[in-house]
Design goal:
Shape: flat
Strand content: under 5%
Oligomer: single chain
Number of strands: 0
Number of helices: 7
Order of helices and strands: HHHHHHH
Number of domains: 1
């Protein structure tokens, strides 16, 4: 890895213009990635950042942006961090936001904890999210159980 790539990576990790990364300016995709990271983990606080001002369009845009720059496992971690760090539970009460998030177990747990306060207009979206996560878990458990049973049968014979 060359020096420029190393500085670029450190700039993304450290955020802002730290002394260690002076001269590692970001452009294009890196600038967008830095923006979504800064919105969640610190850095420059402006009106476009997720969690500041509680604007649903900004949060919905941020949720879309993180999918642009990161893989699904990373998106799920970032969404969980957004729920924990920025208190986005109230955003889950809106169907538009709920449709934009990546379904995972942590999201289902947040929805269950909000179960009594979820408005009627959001309940169908919440049910779809829970159903998707449950179906994924069932599929994985079925596959693993079948593999374990086959392996036990092979060992027995």
């Amino acid at each position: 890895m060359d020096e420029k790539e190393r500085l670029r990576r450190w700039r993304l990790v450290l955020g802002g213009d730290s002394e260690e990364t002076i001269g590692a300016g970001l452009t294009g995709k890196d600038r967008g990635m830095d923006g979504v990271l800064a919105a969640l983990y610190g850095g420059q606080k402006d009106s476009k950042n997720v969690g500041y001002g509680g604007s649903m369009p900004n949060v919905a845009r941020w949720l879309g942006d993180i999918r642009t720059y990161f893989s699904s496992p990373v998106v799920r971690v970032m969404q969980k961090d957004a729920l924990d760090r920025l208190g986005l539970e109230r955003m889950l009460l809106e169907p538009e936001i709920l449709e934009a998030v990546e379904p995972d177990v942590h999201l289902v747990a947040a929805l269950i904890s909000l179960g009594r306060v979820i408005p009627e207009k959001t309940k169908d979206s919440a049910r779809r999210v829970v159903r998707k996560v449950v179906e994924d878990l069932e599929r994985r458990l079925t596959r693993e159980t079948e593999q374990a049973a086959r392996a036990a049968l092979v060992r027995r014979t």
